Amino acid sequence: MYKRRGWSAHSEKKWAQMSPDARGEFASNAAKLVIKNPGIELHAIVVAKQNVKQHIQRDPNKLYNYMVKLLLLDQMAKHEQVSFVPDPRSIKVESGSSLHDYLQTELWFSRGSTTRLETIPRDSQHCLNLQFTDMVAGVVQSYFEFGQTRYWDVLSAHIRLETLFFEST
Prior knowledge:
Layout: H1 2-5, H2 20-36, E1 42-47, H3 54-57, H4 60-76, E2 81-84, H5 99-110, E3 116-119, H6 128-146, H7 150-155, E4 159-164
Parallel strand pairs: 1-4, 2-3
Helix pairs in contact: 4-5
């Protein structure tokens, strides 16, 4: 899309900056990519933040880390080695425990896995894979936060979705 649309490779294109046509093209191309490559899976988790208890909301990184665990731990446990590329903001929570240590501990002790986790934080500006992931997140967010169905309708059949706190607590 960068080449076809004449976007600069030196400047990250954010979902919010994309035109509706570019968003539609992305959703369509992402669906085609998953269909052609069965080894590629798209996973997403969404949370109804208004239903999250206040004491949990005080440290949003803990909720983020918990969501990452729910979403990815079983997938990670299937492999001998996993390279995990999170947003750099997710590395530390207020307690000082890292997401990496949390996931590694859960893999070994909760799942009984021998998976070796390598965590490589990267800024999405320098990583096309993260930009792709951010755009998938844009599709999901557009649907759940703004009710935009155009892109969701194209891609949702290819996303394994989990929801959290959608019932009143």
